[in-house]
Design a protein that fits this description.
This protein has 401 residues and is α+β, with helices and mostly antiparallel strands. It has 7 helices and 19 strands. The longest helix has 47 residues. It starts with a helix and ends in a 13-residue tail after the last helix. β10 and β11 form a beta hairpin. The strands form 6 sheets. A 5-stranded antiparallel sheet has the order 9-12-19-15-13, sandwiched between helices.
Length: 401
Amino acid sequence: QDCGGSGLDDQKTLGEEALVMQGATLKLKLSSRLEWLEGTLEALHANSSNIKDGTLLKAVQKVALWSSPSACEVLGKVSLGQHVFAAGPPQHVDEWLMVPIRPRGAVQLDLMRTCERQPLPLDVCRQLLSNLPHCNRYTQYRVSDMDSSCHVAIILESLVLTSLTSHRLRLGSGPMCASPRILVEKIEQVFNPRLLEKIILELQHMTGLSRGGCETVLPPDHPLLLETACGVQMNECLLFHGGKDADLDRICQAGFDPRLGGQSTGRLFGRGTYFAENFSKADLYAGSRPFGKPSGTMSVLVARVALGQAYRTLVPMNDIALPPQRPGTRDPYDAVWVPPKEDGGCVDHAEYVIYKDSQAVPMYRIRYRHDSSCLCSRCRAELQRVCSVGCLPKIAGGGLS
């Protein structure tokens, strides 16, 4: 009996020791987990202090896009790897840190990471984008992929994402839709020495007609305005131009041809080459069918445009083939520009039109696609068309949320 009793006591002691060891192991695991969690939260809060308006963020997984930091309405998704720009510092909402982003919405901070390379100050960006590449008789036309981490590529992606805005469901009518959600796949640099020589000669000609410079069209602090190449203000700027891929291939090689302007989408301001300061406006004309369903990877050109002494119009000018004549001279204006409706114009978003091929040169090509959660005017129009024939499209993630 003593032996039996001693055996039971030993088993009880061993069981207690095992429980103690398991408890210690669990406590150690919990302690390590808590230390990791505390470290993550500290890093998250430290990271949040560096986030401000214009900070470039990258999604580390698929992230819900909320209508505002404190709202419960979901606008869509931010895809894995997609870049967004903060519209201000993070905000505490219950136990979450939410970051407002451009052009609208908010995302959860712990699902985003701050990119190592951030956009440079405006004056530095302008200087980098204003530099004309050097060319001589031996340089040849080429198109080359840009490193996505280089400063110019980051600046260009910033210009693209921050210029996205809402457009009407139908051309000229209908309600305004959400801003497009796009993914920039790559940026190409276009180098065409012949076209660069043409715009430099055109700038010299324009300078001769306006020796004192031109009245600025874009505000002095506008990110698309460039430093002048000829010493006086000639309204040189970067603007967007969308089109079919085959047409953009031809433009990169042969340049813009105003004689072909308006062949497929009308000529509200005559026969010329049209440009936009909003990437989303150029997006409407990109792909195989303007204003139609976004077709996979599409392209928009970023062109250096010399607007010179530009004529401001508030009404359509359908029949013109060159700008109106300058007062007191026999020379026409260099370009036509149209302010948006909010400033008295006749279009929702500003447009710029040139009538000479030597006033613009393609500098970059943005290759991009619409996100599967995009509900812009193009994507919504296609959704309505499909619904009207009685079948719903299959959208990634399941359903139409």
